[in-house]
Amino acid sequence: MLRTVKARTAAGKRALKKREPQTIEEAKPAVFIKGTTTSQLVMSVLKDLYSLKRPDAVLFGKRNEVRPFDDPRPLEFFSQKNDAALFVIASHSKKRPHNLVFARTFDYQLLDMVEVGVEKGVPMEMFKTTKSAVGHRPLLVFSGDAWDSTDELRTLKSILLDMYRGATSNDMVNLAGVEHLICITAESAQKVYLRTYTIQLKKSGTRLPRVELEEMGPACDLVIRRCRTADTDLWKAATRVPKELKPQKEKNIERNELGDKMGRIHMHKQDLGKLQTRKMKGLKRGPAEDENEDEEEGQSKKRRED
Amino acid sequence: MDVVAQLQTLKDKYKSTEVEKAIPVDFDLRNLVAFDTNPVDHALLRSSPDTYLKNLAREGAQLLVNQIFGLPTETAQEGVFAKLPDATTQIPRAKPIPKEKALTRWENFAKTKGIQKRKTSRMVYDEGVGDYKPRWGYKGANQTTDDWLLEVPDNADPMEDQYEKRREEKKERVEKNKKQQRRNAEEASATAAGRNPREARKAEIQKKIVESKGSTASLGRFDAQLRNEDKIKIKRGKRKFEPATVDASIEKEGAMKVAKKVLKGEDGKVLNITKAVKQVHQKGGLRNVDMEEGKKKKRRTK
Asked: Where is the segment annotated Disordered (chain B) (predicted)?
């Protein structure tokens, strides 16, 4: 583990402050790591996944001995060092050819991870089409009925969604920025297809546009390998919602079946003594009467106090 | 021509935006994601994967775009923005929820009294100079020692250096502020540890007294007495000495004990941390590790 350092300069203080936990979090930064041995195929997929995740991503140029299923400590070290929460590690061995590990950390501790093998992969540069601009949020589609069937797929879905959903702290999306789509299809509990397309919005004669797609790349067929689901306690801590973001309970307001708002108001008891009745000239009080009235009122108050 | 028919011809001119799905698709629009749980057609996927997947993606994208373009919009200089609803998918955070900062003594006092912070301007007008100066800090309005002339008060000693006096006063103020900061930090750490700050401070002082008493040769016997000092117990360890002549075997045993400790660690147990982490991790965390496993084996070997 890294030492916890105390800032000596103002710039250092700002840098440390930036790393402090936030109530509303920005997009999680991802680190793309080259393992000790890699194949051309898995590296091309890694680079394409990196370019899809940019600008919240770092691609390590040097090789690193990271085997998160054996020892999570190197990963946790990188998490702290780079202030990153998402990892993709590429490796290639005889036992596990063209291997990718998607891992996620919480509080610089390994939370969950899933390992996939790349069976087939077509890199982005092979598609001679226009690419999406950096920094635009992609649309995501998870199709197939297998997604919720196994822990492996659930974890993979959660991590991929976490990685490519972008900065969700902003509740506005530019409609002109809807540029590309990542479609991930689970054929079975073992096989997953990842395809990426650019979106063209065409006229449809209605207010909504007609969507046409053009393959942008990368396209890869993945097989599920090992998986490590999140520890229950750690998951619980990671999914806690801050008090500020919890919906406020509305007091005394209900909605009926028709969706109408029904309010309940609590009022003081009405003082009928001061009720304004019909004014008539004959009932009008003169100045002398007024004084008497005051005295009487004083007395009545006293009586009430008794 | 009928309006309905006219609309229909206009519609027919373009491809439709409608998509039919057997199971309705779920959306989480804050994350711009659609979950299509309709089963995959395996035969089609095997025969022509690219066209099938592209069609599947187009349908999903069309449904998602229909939803997003149906949201209320706002127009800004950069374009038209859709306002997204709250997220529905549970996704873990990267870091824990920030802890609430402990209030300082002043903040606590202000809270109970209902004193609110007021915004003051950073610059103040200095009449002597005829210009604005920062309220505090470098070349600030409160830098009293910067004055070129200081009046000696009527009842003051004329030989006293007024500049020196102001410098000393400022030093004292700074010291006082530092002391208060330290106290606030100590109190905050005590409260965070679930202790009463007053009790924690008391315990700390008592510990310090005991330490200082024990640090003189006479163990504080001739030191000035503090008030209520007799209530503080001062522990004095008694030194034990081995007898000068013992059996050689006992002496040997002691020496061997030390040697073993140096060579193998405490109790002869050697823990290879890297190996242990690896073993635990490969089993999927501590929860899957049988803690009794190693012990049983040991018994069997005996």
From this structure: 152-209
CB contact under 8 A, B53 and A183: yes
Q: Is the pLDDT of residue B171 over 90?
A: yes
H or E stretch at A89 = strand A86-91
pTM of the model: 0.73
Split at pLDDT 50, 70, 90, the class of B291 is low
Out of A21, A105, A173, the one facing B97 most closely (by C-beta) is A21
**Nearest chain A residue to B282, by CA:** A70
| Best residue of B4, B10, B33, B46 to probe chain A, by most A CBs closer than 10 Å | B33
DSSP-derived letter for residue B95 is: S
**What domains does chain A contain, in order, with CATH numbers?**
27-168+175-230 (3.40.50.10480)
Interface confidence, given as ipTM, is 0.79
Cα dihedral A283/A285/A291/A294 (nearest 10):
50
**pLDDT one-digit tens code per residue, A254-293:** 888 887 888 888 888 888 888 887 888 777 776 665 555 5
Angle at which helices A40-53 and A151-164 cross, to 10°: 50
